[in-house]
Design goal:
It is a multi-pass membrane protein. The protein has 9 helices and no strands. It is mainly alpha-helical and 182 residues long. The longest helix has 37 residues, at 138-174. The chain is elongated, with a radius of gyration of 18 Å. The chain starts with a helix and ends with a helix.
Length: 182
Amino acid sequence: MIGAHAETALALVGTYGAAAIFVVFALEGALVGKVLPARTLFVATVVAAGVEAVAVLPVFAAAVAGATVGQSAVFVAVRRFDVDPTEFRAVPVGAGRLDGAARWLDRWGLPAVAVSNAVPGTRGWLAVPTANASTVSGPRFAAASLVGSAAYVGALLAVGVAVALGFGGVLGLVGGELVASL
């Protein structure tokens, strides 16, 4: 059984399509939506859409754009308005984790933003130290965020396509009656 949040998110995707994926990934990028099942929702959407490029490319683009917009919003909020995201209960990232992210940024520079966005669990965390402790411009941060998010969502797309093809193969073996009942 899926949770209430996941069920609601799937219903929103069913109604609003890629726009719902954009919102979920924007919230995840803004560090607020870490409680939303963005990965699961994306894979489920790809499975539901099928493996045709015309069906999955808008979902891919919405996820990458949403994550980039969300992370850029955190970057701007920290840089221009001196917001500390760790003060908000909705942001499940502690100051200790941000210190680790800052050390990573100090060691590797702007490419660390792209790499961290490609790794589940660290996505978006470098927005705060990059805004606080570097001279990186907003557009350069957004470009690095976009590259990492595209790699991350591309990997999720590959998982979704593999699952979709796997389900199709299994359902084909079971028979048409079961497929018709789904």
